[in-house]
């Protein structure tokens, strides 16, 4: 008979022989043996080599790994272990958001000790660190950076011109050039900030050129010479008024390089007649274009009929 968990090592029985000796020595009872356990991947067991009945082995995982299963196992009487060897699984890290205008490689899910590379699209530069690493405590070494537009060199407006927008000048911005009145763009009117940070076209120049002025009409009660057209740079128009009217303003206007006229269109106003004075011992009524004279003496008034004087329209004839 043997105690559970122990194995007899020797003969089952022994006999007292004629010579006074036993046929077999007393056997020994030794602990039963279990199979040899191996440490879990990315982990360890302690103590090593413990395979005898009653031995207990403890399992642990390396930093950055979590133990899934029993932490201990005991060698039982039947030569079997009470628990199987556990597994050590990597500590997970939280998911990462793909940066705008960029990408992550590889894609998740992520666990210790994964490394993730952050790249930006063409024309964008990473403001941050790459790669980022999932650490043993389940956190990332750095946050995912930002992909910012690549900057092109600052542009200055051409002389006698302007550019829009003034800033910022980042990929894929387009800048438009314009020239002041009387000047034209000599070169490309637009340029684009490219993926490599260079401009697609150089800044143009603004060169002076003859321009067009607005069409001028003849003044009311007047005329212009020539009667039509003549609104290009350098053209001169002469203004006159109809008979009986007076010109107020410049008699000529010239189309200038900036597309404006040197003088505005003048006005033609009716020519006035000199004021009339009341005759001695008489009167005039009413003032205006027709006047009746009268005398103060009633006798003379009956002897001499009133005189009607028609005054011409202002600017025409004489009294």
UniProtKB/TrEMBL annotation:
Gene (name only): LOC118411127
Protein name stated in the entry: E-selectin-like
Spans annotated as Disordered: 274-319
CDD domains cross-referenced by the UniProt entry: CCP
Sushi domain ranges (all copies): 1-31, 32-90, 91-149, 204-270
Keywords carried by this UniProt record: Disulfide bond, Glycoprotein, Repeat, Sushi
Organism encoding this protein: Branchiostoma floridae (Florida lancelet)
Intrachain disulfide bonds: 61-88, 120-147, 241-268
Keyword Repeat: yes
The organism's place on the tree of life at top rank: Eukaryota
SUPFAM superfamilies noted in UniProt: Complement control module/SCR domain
PROSITE patterns: SUSHI (PS50923)
Comp. bias regions, Polar residues: 277-293
